[in-house]
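Task 17 of the worksheet. Students: predict the tertiary structure of the chain below and write it out as structure tokens. Keep your answer in the requested format; marks are given for formatting as well as content.
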Amino acid sequence: MLPGDILVFALGGNAIAAKSGGTFDAQYAAVRAATREIARLAGDGYRIVVTHGNGPQVGDALLRSEHSAPLAPPLPLHACVAETQGMLGAMIEMALAGWIKTERGISSKVATLVTRVLVSAADPAFEAPTKPVGPVLPYNGAKPGAPPRYPFPVRQVAPGRYRRVVPSPDPVSVLEAGAVRRLLAAGYIVIACGGGGIPVVVKKGRTGSGSSGRRSSKSSSGGLSFVDAVVDKDLASERLASAIGASRLVCLTDVAGAYVDFRSSRRRLLRKASVAEMKDLLAAGHFEEGTMEPKVRAAVRFAENTGRSAVIAHLGRVRQAAGLAAGTVVYYK
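Model answer:
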């Protein structure tokens, strides 16, 4: 890796959610801690893109919207994605700008880009929502005290504990990839694909739910329509990293890397694995759906599409992960 190479860092939404309360100030403190080493890598001359998840935050936004419906019109899911993309992007931008000001030798500027991600209206995820968002709930949506109607199902995760699940279609492309390239060339650290990006589909026929039953918005432009879903940020980050010619994709999370038998006493951290080995482990079901599985899929896709290595590592090992000295390295073979 050489100065001038493009590094894409995907920050996990849970990793920056600040487990001690989740207030704005607590989340901002978590973001500041996560971004210091990223800023230092910019000072070393690397071109950097930061993406981030929003699973906890978008679920909170949905709850706020629904519970305040008597006072203000509720927002659709795609609008909550856009809302949290802006909020978290502002936190990350302020944090990076602060480190740039206090650390020596960093000349980069920072820009947050509102990012749309194209998905397919025919993606089977729309028929079977599986991505959990928001907090664990004490009700299933039909009990007293719950909002009168949920637009998405609530799944029981433990006795008396529930989580909302939403569609998570596979990203096809990042529509603002060209703008990201131009901002990088102009010397910016770019924050993009927040929350996996705002999902849009190619408009066919009239807008609205249409014959397929999709919850899509009547707001459309250029043959595209918003659609209610949350795109996985790791998979969207791979699409962006491959499109802009990144040298490395680094998926940062709150564990040391990808484990085999993670929930058992035999768990084993994978230090290095080929694309073929990771595909075999994926097929055998070693990685949890909605958490580690998409990170592994993103790493595999990046290695396949570029011939370069990707890494899954702990948020506190940014510099080591960028140098492939920490976490799980996935390489092309």
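Marker's comment: The chain has a mean pLDDT of 87. The CA atoms of residues 2 and 187 lie 16 Å apart.
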